[in-house]
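User:
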Amino acid sequence: MDTSLFPTKGNLIQAQNTLRLSRQGYELLDKKRNILIREMMALIARADEIQSQIDSTFHEAYQALQAANITIGISTVEQIGYAVPEDDGVDVKFRSIMGVEIPMVSYDNYELQPRFGFYRTSAALDEAYTKFDKVKRLTIQLAEIENAVYRLASNIKRTQKRANALKNIMIPRYEQLTSSIQNALEEKDREEFTRLKVIKNIKS
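Assistant: Predicted structure:
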């Protein structure tokens, strides 16, 4: 809306409608921002917990792998590693939170079975295989959460900018415009009243 409009009742109504919509828009954006922040903080707490599990499981897995390297030899462990097939069981879908597309990663929940025979292997290698598989599953969960946090943070930033623009620019501008048009109309009404009173006095 042009803020240099003439002070007419039609322009006053238009300015008041724009002001009302701006205030409603700010309230909605503020609610959206708060919801997204709560969702993001919950995900961050969950990500910290999963990261802690990954760190401890990685440590246990490398200890078991080191023990397997010592007992059966590094070259044997490397050869056995080639028997493990490439994993392609990850599927990504999306859900919406206040218009923000959040990834949902699903993974084939199969029963873990060794991909190698018991000949020339050890319990340490079995433990390493199990631990690294657990790390893989945790890493998938962490990737889902971190991606969601990034998307939420980006949308929160955009929402904050829009809310600030309404609060600090649009709303004050139309409050001032509405007030100035109202004052101008009231002044015109007073002038008209005075003019009519003078005319009435002249006629009488």
